[in-house]
Write a structure and sequence with these properties.
- The complex is a heterodimer.
- Chain A is built from 12 helices and no strands.
- Chain A is mainly alpha-helical.
- Chain B is mostly helical.
- Chain B folds into 3 domains: 51 residues; 101 residues, no CATH class; 221 residues, Orthogonal Bundle (MetI-like fold).
- In chain B, α10 packs across α16, α14 crosses α16 and α18 packs antiparallel against α19.
- The chains are: A mainly alpha, B mainly alpha.
- Chains A and B meet through α1, α4, α5, α6 and α7 of A and α1, α10, α11, α12 and α14 of B.
């Protein structure tokens, strides 16, 4: 992106205007996420900066909303539910999705395009439609308002992410490595654990992370098919925003932003590891 | 292994090579299918069946035919010209008595009430007096409630006696059957769904355009920077992508509300007066701003992956052939990015028309989408048939765009992060 030495004045001006513009757009992307972090330390029950905060008076800051969050049984219960549903549905989606991806990446897979389109459709169909449909159907078979119902619904929503990431990993998998391992005297089990698994694991783990975060952040389906016992964290936030706005929401939001930073870091590490294992280095 | 000198070729155990190969291919196909089948079975039960169940519910119409079977058959040879005679009324009373025993008059009265207001009270009032009724019923029933003396009540019962109905789809498009059985628009004060469909589409188009305008420069910058820098800046795109949807919506409430950060800053800077704070939330503006922010990464990522494949030498060649910068961009670079624009545009548009959470939280009355009405009919008005019909129409639109997306780009090209 460096300017060539022959650039005219007009081009130079345009170049800097362009960079400023991009800076503003990045601010639009990331600013809102950063603004809530200081707001969550507000000592007053408002969603904006108080006078005391702006003058950096320590009295303007407090941890009361975090205390609120960690001492409220409703929030703690919601976290527990989110983890139960998230972990169970991630496990199911990862197992089913990985096995299917093994088949999908085979050269001989019949009707590959149509099956792939079907498997990815839960990501494309609007959540409210899936939610309504599952509500009607799950009520009939007595799955509505049960943990199992919510877990199955979230498994459906997580599957496309697992299928996409694992299929992508498998399609870049070099099958000659298996033959090489055999020719060097490894038996199939040893080949699987020593060659195939280490190369595929990063893809499976990132697929699982995608599935988990999808479940962890999902509101609409839970809103329809969960009963009061299965209130998850997003539902708790949703009703918090709709009913009694309190900055506790901002404290939760800050914690979630930190969680997503962590996840992003893990994914990046996995990607690098995958590249290193396959002998690719970032250029 | 096979004897190559004498045709046909065979494998070691004497099977012709062609047959053996075909068998091997069939076995591989079967193996691949077997691996996919558990997932297909699961999705079939937990996703496809619910969707078909919903589609079926949008035309399902059991209330009249199961609760009023005698009335329906008594109405079979009714001329439809005037209020029916005593036998039909007698059949109705018998059906209502039966219905009261079975406790399904509530469903019937709500179903009739969707089509003609006042029917709920007509049924419930009549039901309350059933025990003391004596024949002849015709005059007594009309006395209890005027609705039984109106021609269109009977036309309604006759029309809705079939086990399937299109009424829900008509209602979803602000249409209804006139008493004569023609399709007419509902009165103006009841027209809401068509407006909302229309609003959902144009606002989604505006949001798609906004993400394109904001996403294009960013994708261009990321695609043309050295990898190390662009990887760093990519984090700024991926972080919002990974952050909870509710968190992002909450932050926009904190920023945009009238006592929020943006208005406070503007007042402090003297740009606006304290009493003339901007109304940026709980209206269309709020929905558009928040959804543009939320969907922006979905535009940037496909654009970026297309721009990454355009060799920078093309632009240099165009320049060296004497093109001015803008002309080179318009004639050389821009056409090459059209696949990315199509992919990002369709993706953002599909996601946008199905959004529920953000419009519900920041949209107020005027910034609501059709999805909010699906939820309204599911949870508040409890008209599930209508909710299913609206959802089916929306699903059809999404499937059409998904199909176009699949044809143009291919779902297996979708990348995450």
């Amino acid at each position: 992106m460096a300017l060539p030495s022959y650039a005219t004045t007009g081009e130079r001006v345009w170049h800097y205007v362009f960079l400023t513009l991009c800076g503003l757009i990045f601010l639009f992307l990331i600013g809102p996420l950063l603004i809530i972090i200081p707001l969550s330390f507000n000592a007053e029950p408002y969603f904006t900066f108080s006078e005391a905060m702006l003058s950096f008076d320590p009295a303007g800051y407090s941890l009361r909303w975090y205390e609120d969050f960690f001492t409220s049984s409703a929030w703690l219960n919601a976290i527990k539910n989110s983890f139960i549903v998230g972990i169970a549905s991630t496990l199911l989606a990862t197992i089913l999705g990985t096995i299917a991806a093994l088949g999908l990446s085979s050269r001989f897979m019949p009707a590959r395009g149509a099956i792939m389109a079907l498997l990815i459709s839960p990501m494309i169909v609007p959540l409210i439609i899936s939610a309504a449909a599952m509500f009607f159907f799950f009520s009939k078979i007595n799955l509505a308002q049960t943990y199992l119902g919510v877990i199955l619904a979230h498994t459906v929503l997580g599957i496309p992410f697992v299928v996409i990431t694992v299929t992508a990993t498998l399609s870049s998998f070099d099958t000659t490595l298996i033959r090489a391992a055999h020719s060097l005297g490894a038996n199939p089990t040893r080949t699987f654990f020593k060659v195939v698994l280490p190369l595929v694991t990063p893809g499976v783990v990132s697929g699982a992370l995608f599935a988990f975060i999808t479940s962890f952040d999902e509101v609409v389906v839970v809103l329809f098919i969960a009963g009061p016992e299965q209130r998850t964290m997003p539902i708790q936030m949703w009703s918090g925003i709709r009913e009694q706005i309190s900055p506790t929401i901002l404290a939760v939001a800050t914690l979630l932003v930190i969680l997503s930073m962590l996840l992003l870091a893990i994914l990046e590490l996995l990607r690098r590891r995958g590249e290193r294992l396959r002998g690719l280095t970032p250029g | 292994m096979s004897d190559s000198s004498t045709p046909p070729l065979t494998t070691a155990d004497g099977v012709p090579l062609k047959v053996s190969l075909r068998r091997a291919v069939r076995r591989s196909k079967l193996k691949a299918l077997l691996l996919v089948s558990p997932l297909l079975l699961f999705l079939g039960i937990a996703f496809v069946m619910p969707i078909f169940d919903m589609l079926w519910r949008s035309v399902d119409n059991p209330e009249v035919s199961t609760t009023l079977p005698r009335t329906v058959s008594a109405l079979e040879d009714w001329d439809g010209e005037s209020v029916p005679d005593e036998p039909v009324f007698a059949a109705l009373v018998e059906d209502l008595q039966e219905g009261q025993k079975e406790r399904n008059l509530g469903l019937l009265s709500s179903r009739l009430n969707y089509e003609k207001s006042g029917m709920r009270s007509a049924v419930s009032r009549t039901a309350r007096r059933l025990r003391t009724l004596e024949p002849p019923y015709r005059e007594t029933l009309i006395e209890i409630n005027d609705a039984w003396g109106e021609l269109d009540t009977w036309q309604l019962i006759q029309r809705e006696s079939s086990p399937y109905t299109l009424s829900y789809y008509l209602a979803a498009m602000d249409r209804q059957f006139s008493p004569q059985g023609e399709i007419v628009k509902v009165p103006e004060y009841l027209q809401i769904h068509a407006t909302l469909f229309w609003r959902t589409f144009w606002m989604s188009a505006v949001i798609t355009l906004a993400t394109l305008v904001l996403g294009y420069p960013i994708a261009f910058l990321l695609a043309n920077l050295p990898l190390r820098q662009s990887n760093l800046l990519m984090i700024l795109v991926l972080l919002p992508f990974w952050t909870s949807l509710l968190v992002r919506t909450t932050t926009w409430i904190a920023i945009l509300q009238s006592q929020g950060v943006l208005n406070d800053v503007m007042v402090a800077l003297g740009v606006i007066a304290d009493e003339a704070r901007w109304q940026l939330i709980h209206n269309k503006t709020g929905t558009i701003i928040a959804m543009t922010h939320i969907l922006l990464p979905f535009m940037i990522l496909p654009l970026y992956s297309v721009m990454k494949t355009i060799p920078p030498s093309y632009m240099r060649a165009a320049r060296s052939l004497g093109g001015r910068p803008f002309l080179c961009f318009r004639r050389v670079y821009f056409p090459l990015t059209i696949p990315g624009i199509a992919a990002g545009g369709i993706l953002v548009f599909i996601l946008s028309i199905g959004y529920y959470i953000t419009p519900a939280l920041v949209g107020g009355q005027s910034g609501r989408f059709i999805t909010n009405y699906i939820a309204y009919h599911m949870q508040t008005s409890l008209n599930w048939g209508l909710a299913a019909a609206i959802a089916s129409i929306l699903l059809l639109v999404v499937v059409v765009f998904y199909w176009i997306f699949n044809r143009l780009i291919g779902v297996d090209k979708v990348k995450l992060g």
